[in-house]
Design a protein that fits this description.
Blueprint (H helix, E strand, L loop, with lengths): L1 H24 L8 H23 L17 H12 L3 H18 L3 H10 L3 H8 L5 H28 L2 H14 L10 H26 L7 H11 L1
Helix pairs in contact: 2-5, 2-6, 2-9, 2-10, 3-4, 4-7, 4-8, 4-9, 5-7, 7-9
Pfam family, one: DUF4197
Keywords: Signal
Protein name: DUF4197 domain-containing protein
């Protein structure tokens, strides 16, 4: 009889352990499910777009933001230095400003493209993003939107450069530079350069917001963000 009770006790111990393991695997009200995880990533990206990308569309959004300010391409950095050395710093500053103004105009085209890409995030995407690097969500967005954004940005930037007089400004700058006896002529494709720089600036600012949410609990401003990003903290 004692032996039977002993065996029954051993059986109950193991059964309880197995039962507890099953219970531990069941979802609780505070544990985000698959759709919650995808929704949390969508929300984080939407916050990055709303909070950071919208800043870039404003006047001086690029020009006075040192993280994304568009400087001269390598071919024209010597132009900038030469102009400043001979007292034409104001002209050089104006040349920089019009490049950044064109980028500010172009970024207004980005939001609808981003919104569509964010809607298409699947759970499998979200799971990999959540457990990825600090910029994993930004990288996902970049991979899924960059080509489309380039095709949208480029004509806007080209038109903007013409509208704000960039073509005239840069023709003036380049002509003055090329007229100097100590220089070699330069003729860069400014539209392509500014387009590439504008794209880089957009993703830089989205990554800033993503990193905040991943690393600072105070940046998780909704219950969904708190629950989903708590999973990566474990």
């Amino acid at each position: 009889m004692k032996k039977a009770i002993y065996v029954l006790g051993i059986f109950l111990i193991f059964s309880c352990a197995e039962l507890q393991q099953v219970v531990n695997q069941l979802p609780t009200s505070s544990t985000p499910g698959n759709e919650d995880i995808a929704s949390g990533l969508r929300q984080a990206l939407n916050f990055g777009i709303e909070k950071q990308v919208s800043k870039l569309t404003q006047k001086d959004g690029f020009f006075k933001n040192q993280m994304v300010k568009i400087m001269l391409p390598a071919e024209l950095q010597k132009v900038d230095k030469t102009l400043r050395d001979i007292g034409l710093g104001n002209l050089a500053d104006e040349g920089l400003k019009v490049l950044n103004r064109a980028a500010e105009d172009a970024v207004k085209e980005a939001t609808p493209i981003f919104v569509n890409a964010v809607k298409n995030i699947t759970f499998n995407d979200a799971k990999n993003i959540l457990l990825g690097a600090d910029n994993a969500a930004t990288a996902y967005l970049q991979n899924n939107t960059e080509k489309q954004l380039y095709s949208k940005f480029s004509p806007v930037i080209n038109n903007s450069l013409s509208r704000v007089g960039a073509t005239e400004v840069w023709s003036n700058i380049i002509n003055k530079y090329n007229a100097l006896p100590i220089t070699n002529n330069v003729n860069p494709d400014l539209t392509d350069y500014v387009t590439q720089e504008a794209l880089e600036g957009v993703f830089t600012m989205i990554a800033v917001e993503e990193k905040e949410i991943r690393n600072k609990t105070t940046a998780r401003t909704t219950d969904l963000l708190k629950r989903v990003f708590a999973l990566q903290d474990r």
